[in-house]
Amino acid sequence: MAWDTARTKQLLLDAAVEEFAEHGPEGARVARVAARAGVNKERIYQYFGGKDRLFGAVLAAELAGLAAAVPLSAEQAGDLGDYAGRVHDYHLAHPHFSRLLAWEGLQHGAQGDGGAVAAEAERAAHYAEKVRAVAAAQDAGALTRDADAARLTYAVIALVNAWFMLPQVARLLLSAVPDPRPAGDRDALVLLVRRLTSNGTG
After folding, report:
1. 47 and 86 belong to one structural domain
2. Euclidean distance between CA atoms 32 and 39, whole angstroms
3. Is 37 within 8 Å of 10 (Cβ atoms)?
4. Does the keyword Membrane apply (predicted)?
5. What's the whole-number average pLDDT of the chain?
6. Same domain membership, residue 92 and residue 40
7. Are 88 and 160 in contact (CB under 8 A)?
8. What is the mean pLDDT of residues 40-48?
């Protein structure tokens, strides 16, 4: 019976998502990934070359999943509030994703600026597509030009992710607000992003 390589790789990736989300790239162990997947750990080295490259494959796959589920065309970029709301919904359904990014940020920050990140070329290309969409929306007059397209894109991504990476801060802040308006986190996020990115001429 032929070995199902594609299925084995997917089992390892699925198991690695959980392992890295729980323990981060430093604390994760290939033996635990293999055990979760029910696969010999030597397959990790055979298919991915080791833990660091497995983490890169996980992040690349997760970003591809987000891009497929929440596309950002130039037309869609004209309403970055709506985009932020859709990304918010994706994070609610996939809570491990923001944890992976947070773990990587902690590790990367400890290494100092300039260090390579996992799957850097693929991820840079992914983000470049978003920046081009935002730039096109700016050219069309739909978005502010107070910041360049890359920084505007980063601000929106950072704001959405902070909602999930800093839940303790949100709890402490919101507990002091008897009647928060808008009442929902998603509605507040959409409103704030629209205010942040509007060109102010509408």
Report:
1. no
2. 10
3. no
4. no
5. 89
6. no
7. yes
8. 93
Q: What percent of the chain has pLDDT over 90?
A: 63
Helices (H), the chain: 5-27, 30-37, 42-48, 51-69, 74-77, 80-93, 96-111, 120-139, 149-165, 167-174, 185-197
With bands split at pLDDT 50, 70 and 90, how would you rate the model's confidence at 1?
A: very low
Query: Is the confidence at residue 178, as pLDDT, over 90?
Result: no
Length of the chain: 202
> What pLDDT digit, counting tens, does each position of 135-161 carry?
999 999 999 999 999 999 999 999 999
Distance from C-alpha of 161 to C-alpha of 102, rounded to nearest angstrom: 9
Burial 122-150 (b: 16+ CB within 10 A, else e): ebeeeeeebbebbbbbbeeebbbeebebe
Domain count, the chain: 2
126 shares a domain with 97: yes
- Residue partners of 91: CB distance under 8 A and separation at least 6: 97, 98, 160, 161, 163, 164
**DSSP bridge partners of 198:** 143
Tokens of 132: 């081009």
For 44, phi then psi, to 5°, come to -60, -45
Structure confidence at residue 109 (pLDDT): 62
How many Å separate Cα 45 from the centre of its chain? 26
Residues 6 or more apart in contact with residue 189 via CB below 8 angstroms: 81, 84, 85, 88, 159, 160, 163
pTM of this structure? 0.86
